[in-house]
């Protein structure tokens, strides 16, 4: 059973790139844009992270926190964050427990090889902790602007 729009977003605790434990409930009272991505330092994931970085101030002005989630370890997240000057937290979901709760841990296929991995997805959680919008199978180009516009038009 995965979460659906209109439901309370399941709380979780994950380690962030800074080594601190972070809970979704830590951000109660703020909007949260949480995006799941496959892997640090890959072209699509780098573009997406840099797009969130470039619009970070716009999200912040809307009382909105950005969280990136992938299975990569703390050290790799920290290197990714430092290399691209990312101003938001990257969370380690190495056992994919949160990805499974959000239904984004999927069977994938690349060059005929099947494997389990993250399906690029974004979720918007309102100040009360409810899931209000989701994008699954995200295409990177233009996505961050779409998420920002959703927050502007629906959560103010």
Fold and architecture overview:
- With 156 residues, the protein is of the alpha+beta class.
- The protein has a single domain, classed as Glutaredoxin (3-Layer(aba) Sandwich).
- Helix content is 29%, strand content 29%.
Distance between the termini: 30 Å
Task: Give me the CATH superfamily.
Answer: Glutaredoxin
**Number of individual domains:** 1
> How many strand units?
9
N-to-C SSE string, H for helix and E for strand: EEEHHEHEHEEEEH
Portion of residues within helices: 25-40%
Q: Kindly provide the name of the CATH class.
A: Alpha Beta
SS class = alpha+beta
Unreliable spans = none
Task: Describe what is shown at a glance.
With 156 residues, this protein is of the alpha+beta class.
Topology:
Elements: E1 13-16, E2 21-23, E3 31-36, H1 43-54, H2 56-61, E4 64-70, H3 74-84, E5 89-92, H4 97-101, E6 105-110, E7 113-118, E8 121-125, E9 131-135, H5 143-154
Parallel strand pairs: 3-4, 4-5
Antiparallel strand pairs: 1-2, 1-5, 3-8, 6-7, 8-9
Features:
156 residues, alpha+beta, Glutaredoxin, 7-stranded mixed sheet, 9 strands, 29% helix
């Amino acid at each position: 059973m995965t979460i659906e729009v209109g439901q309370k977003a399941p709380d979780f605790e994950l380690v962030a790139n800074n080594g601190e434990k972070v809970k979704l409930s830590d951000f109660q009272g703020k909007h949260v844009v949480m995006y799941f991505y496959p892997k640090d330092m890959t072209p699509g994931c780098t573009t997406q992270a840099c797009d969130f970085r470039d619009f970070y101030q716009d999200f912040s002005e809307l009382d909105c926190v950005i969280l990136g989630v992938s299975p990569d370890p703390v050290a790799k997240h920290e290197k990714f964050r430092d290399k691209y000057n990312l101003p938001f937290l990257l969370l380690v979901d190495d056992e994919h427990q949160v990805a499974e709760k959000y239904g984004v841990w999927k069977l994938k296929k690349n060059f005929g090889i099947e494997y389990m991995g993250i399906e690029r997805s974004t979720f918007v959680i309102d100040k009360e902790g409810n899931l209000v919008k989701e994008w699954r199978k995200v295409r990177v180009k233009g996505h961050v602007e779409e998420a920002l516009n959703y927050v502007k038009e629906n959560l103010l």
